[in-house]
Design a protein that fits this description.
Layout: H1 4-12, H2 21-25, H3 29-39, H4 45-59, H5 68-80, H6 86-93, H7 97-109, H8 113-126, H9 135-145, H10 149-156, H11 160-169, H12 177-192, H13 207-217, H14 233-250, H15 256-263, H16 267-287
Length: 295
């Protein structure tokens, strides 16, 4: 690699972030790391300095900003096909793919319904299974808006049968069961009322029922409807369990029985959440163990 010493010193001295290597030197992060691995064996001072920098970068990620007009133009270009791939778009803008995707998702989830629909249809060409859709978040919005499944499907440009199929899958999700039951009850009442909508002043639930429903939905934090890399079921369960454990910790030194009552869950739910968190974090800890290093 040409100019390796210059590049290495620039990185070590903090003169250039790793994400800017491609732009300034024409060298990708992966290529740079591979060259470092080749030149500096584990245990050398140079390797230790680089390792420390990489750890610092991971622990203190900085969000690179993209001008709104550039972001809008990029999204339009991708949807229209003028820009072939996200990879090419990221190269043109001068940011890494992950950063661009994060900005795009923020932009699209806060855009009007027309753009959301266009983007979903664009992604569906690459992911016909609609893995870019967070159906749990979609179901929660459907209940809050008291919309039908077909109305939500039309709003987001998703086949109605896909929405129905994904909703049916949630029946076996123990943690999401309360929301699933509310969605089924909403559908049943909509059928009885001839699929009346909120705009027609026909509410599907009375004031007391709506209050209970809101309390239930507020317990769930499923994020945006349009997502990038879908979370695995294990990741989703871990995040939910972690949140519950944090709430338990905030209650201080009281019994688990009292904590469960205050949190509106059972003692066994608290116990399962603790085990879920421990198992997941132990697994991730093992995955991060350095390969080939003496311990």
């Amino acid at each position: 690699m040409k100019n390796f010493e210059e590049i290495f010193l620039a990185v070590i001295n903090g003169e250039i972030p790793l994400r800017k290597l491609k732009e300034k030197y024409g060298v990708g992060i992966k290529q740079f790391k591979s060259e470092c691995d080749r030149r500096f064996p584990i245990g050398t001072p140079e390797r230790e300095k680089l390792t420390a920098i990489l750890k610092a970068n991971k622990s203190k990620p900085q969000r690179v900003e993209i001008k709104p007009e550039i972001l809008a133009k990029t999204v339009d270009g991708l949807i229209s096909g003028e820009i072939p791939t996200v990879s090419e778009a990221s190269t043109e803008i001068g940011v890494d793919i992950q950063t661009l995707q994060e900005h795009m998702l923020d932009y699209i989830n806060n855009a009007d319904n027309a753009l959301k629909r266009q983007y979903i249809e664009y992604e569906a060409k690459k992911h016909p299974n609609y893995s870019h859709i967070n159906f749990k978040a979609l179901v929660i919005e459907m209940i809050r808006m008291q919309e039908t499944q077909s109305a939500m499907a039309n709003k987001y440009g998703i086949p109605t049968r896909t929405v129905s199929r994904e909703l049916a899958k949630l029946e076996k999700d123990e943690d999401f069961a309360p929301v699933y039951r509310i969605a089924k009850e909403l559908a049943s009442r909509q059928m009885k009322h001839g699929n009346c909508r909120v705009e027609n002043k026909t509410r599907m639930f009375n004031e007391f029922e709506q209050s209970l429903i809101n309390d239930t939905l507020n317990f769930y934090d499923e994020g945006p409807i349009i997502i990038g890399t879908p979370k695995t079921e294990r990741e989703t369960k871990y995040e939910k369990a972690k949140k519950l454990m944090q709430q338990r910790q905030e209650l201080g030194e009281i019994t688990n029985k009292e904590a469960a009552r205050k949190l509106g869950v059972s003692i066994s739910t608290l116990r399962r959440a603790r085990i879920t968190v421990e198992d997941y974090e132990n697994l991730k800890g093992n995955e991060k163990e350095p390969v080939g290093e003496e311990r």
